[in-house]
Amino acid sequence: MTIDVRRAHADGLNETALSRSRDRLLDRRSFLAGSAAGIGAFGLGGCVTSDGTMVAEAAKVYGPMPDEKFPIPAVDIRKVDPKYYRRTVRYETKEAPGTIVVDPRNYYVYRIEGDGSATRYGANVGRDGFLWSGDAYVGRKSEWATWTPPKEMIRRQPEAAKYARGMPGGLDNPLGARTLHLYQNGAYTLYTIYASSDPESIGSGITSGCVGLLSQDMIHLYARTPVKTKVVVLPA
């Protein structure tokens, strides 16, 4: 099925991303203090979530990434349903290893590993009216990409006009640390798989068609995804 690119705008991000980003900038002191507190709170060796995922392990997976160009703070995993934690699962498919499968109905992204298994990530997806399905591929990849709001968004949100020439990469940038840009037949669809710094968005439909993973998950997927990788978006 062909993606309706007219319904996407400027990497398809939800219009709330701009306002949410204002609260995400952290100075190094608060970043380090918050990270230590978060890990300490969840570093209980015997604490296990109801679905068997160890909270201490999740705190490690979603811990701070201080060596990034813009240091990424730890995820507050209390704000993420444990079923959306990254894990390896059984997944039967005819798709080749390396293929990315997006399941918007269940808010998951899978990377096919072969032998009937996949790495599964929790995701946010398009809101009502912006869901789409079909095949695409990764046409290019970006680290800490510049984000430019479309004219349509600027008309709806005049405060975005200051970024008409582009918002530089950073923690407050809606595209986040890593972006996979999706193409069809040589043309950019305007849809992306991007890094979200909003843990409360995982498991919800909030975007204009793009798919967001927690920053730590997106960096994990990005490193394993070359350009030309096939992406399959299932019907919602």
Report the strand count. Answer: 11
What's the story with the biggest beta sheet? 9 strands, mixed
- Cα end-to-end separation: 13 Å
Which range does the strand content fall in? 25-35%
Low-confidence stretches: 1-12, 21-53
- CATH top level is Mainly Beta
CATH topology: L,D-transpeptidase catalytic domain-like
Using the CA coordinates, give the radius of gyration: 17 Å
The run of helices and strands is HHHEEEEEEHEEEEHE
The proportion of residues forming helix, as a percent range, comes to 10-25%
Count of the separate structural domains: 1
What would CATH call the homologous superfamily? L,D-transpeptidase catalytic domain-like
CATH architectural arrangement? Beta Barrel
Largest sheet, spatial ordering of strands = 1-4-3-2-11-6-7-8-10
Anisotropy-based shape:
globular
Q: Whole-number average pLDDT?
A: 82
Structural class: alpha/beta
* Count, helices: 5
List keywords for this structure.
alpha/beta, 11 strands, disordered N terminus
Walk me through what this model shows.
With 236 residues, the protein is an alpha/beta fold. It has one domain (5-24, 85-233): Beta Barrel (L,D-transpeptidase catalytic domain-like), CATH 2.40.440. Helix content is 18%, strand content 26%. It is built from five helices and eleven strands; from the N terminus they run H-H-H-E-E-E-E-E-E-H-E-E-E-E-H-E. The protein has helices at residues 16-21, 28-42, 55-61, 151-156, 215-223; strands spanning 87-90, 100-103, 108-114, 117-122, 125-126, 134-143, 178-184, 187-196, 205-207, 211-214, 230-233. The strands form two sheets. It has a nine-stranded mixed β-sheet. A hairpin with a 2-residue loop joins strand 7 (178-184) and strand 8. The protein is globular, with a radius of gyration of 17 Å. The relative contact order is 0.23.
